[in-house]
Specification:
The protein is mostly helical. It has five helices and four strands, in the order H-E-H-E-H-H-E-E-H. It has helices at 2-14, 31-44, 56-64, 68-86, 101-111, and strands at 21-22, 48-49, 91-94, 97-100. Helix 2 runs parallel beside helix 3 (56-64). The radius of gyration is 17 Å and the shape is elongated. The two termini are 30 Å apart. The mean pLDDT is 95.
């Protein structure tokens, strides 16, 4: 399943699909399993997942929704990059890491 999930994700990104959802968790009673699977799914790069059971909504929302700290981080990143870009730079050190247009593309996607 890991290979299939990764391939679907990569193929979807290559096709330019903006919001990529993982498949349904069918074991409606195993909420801990769903949580672990959502964490793996998010780590792989999925933006969310299809749900069939109302009690799963809160779990998925908790995992896939960026925290206020993450949103603040990407706002700061965007501000730092825009300042650097106005000075003619296409890459800059931000909070100890090098960032460039690929990072900014991700930041804008998350913030949108």
């Amino acid at each position: 399943m890991y290979y299939s999930r990764a391939k679907i994700l990569l193929d979807s990104k290559a096709a330019g699909i903006r919001c990529i959802l993982d498949g349904v968790w069918t074991n409606i009673k195993d909420e801990e399993g769903l949580k672990k699977d959502c964490l793996l799914s998010k780590e792989l790069g999925y933006d969310g997942r299809a749900l069939i059971y109302p009690k799963h909504i809160a779990i998925a929302r908790q995992i896939y929704t960026p925290s206020p700290e993450v949103l603040d981080y990407y706002r700061r990143m965007l501000q730092a990059f825009e300042k650097a870009e106005s000075q003619g730079l296409a890459a800059v050190t931000f909070e100890g890491s090098m960032i460039d247009y690929a990072n900014i593309k991700k930041a804008r996607r998350i913030l949108s």
